[in-house]
Amino acid sequence: MTLTLIRKLLRDLRVALVVVAILLGAFQCLWYKVTERIIAELSPFFTMLAIRSGFRPQVIQDVLFAGPGKIVRTLVGGDQLNFDNVMDMLSIGYVHPLMQTIFCIWAVGRAAGAIAGETDRGTMELLLAQPVPRWRVILAHLCVDLLTIPILCLSLWAGNCLGYALVGPVQVRPPKLPVEVQQSTQVVKFWDFQLSVPSPIDLSKLARSDPASEERARQRLEVRLLDFGRALPVVGGLIFAVSGYTMWLSAAGRFRWRVLGIAVLITLLQFLVNVIGQMWDVAAPLRPLTIFYYYQPQKVILGQGWCVDFAVWNDGQPLVDVPMLLVLYSVGLVGYAMALRTFTRRDIPAPL
Description:
Helices cover 67% and strands 5% of the residues. The chain has 14 helices and four strands. Helix 1 (2-53) packs across helix 4, helix 7 runs antiparallel to helix 14 (324-345) and helix 11 runs parallel beside helix 14 (324-345). The longest helix is centred in the N-terminal third of the chain and has 52 residues, at 2-53. 31% of the residues are buried.
């Protein structure tokens, strides 16, 4: 009977699952093209401008992400990212707000309709009239999560591989400078100012004269597709955590729209607390209380470990390392356990 219920749930989800999987994969494929454009064309252009002006290229990033731009930098990974590195840029696709929104919409929407949705429509009473124990209903939804979440995670990886196959390796191209800038000595008008720009610098000669620079450039442009596969359990952990506590709300609720509203509010508050805590030190101690604090697939992709620390509780000093997978999957399992306890003890109201 449990297998029949699982097949029924998967049949109901098949269209939404395919659509969401395609969206996730398509975004990763598109993000590969965006990364290739930034690394291959825009980054060399800004580097040329920096060298011509006599300061480090990092200064341009500091200017771009100062003030309100700090919000953008926080959303894509914080100060630890190197925007001249291909892997750093590609890893943004896993923490992009659009991706996290799709993850949460899937988890909240599916879990809210699992129990509360059936109760709201009056079909739960018909289901329980069959010889089906209530714990089997929760078990069936858990099995559906264990089947669908890996498909969503693999769609991200497939999008990375498809983007690499379509676009190819990232190759830096010479920046396309305006004709007036290509002169050996010229005066460039910049709004109401006139800047004297020195003659162009042959960056290719500098690279050939420094083998270490060539090696760093090769590593900076290297695309390691297998490294993205290591982050898939972290992505699955976030979806499972959101689905777990939403399932608990669904098991206790009667109306799907009410469960949806509460779950979305809880998830949104956690997201905002995590983002604001990265920019405002007063709110920083609240970050470990959110599940998004433990969603750090970029660390895994870039080989920086599988743990998060509680330095925000110790004035920025290392305190204790906590495995992010342990927290994410524990939240999901606790949510399902509470959903089982709540659902087996509650009364199912008659449909209105």
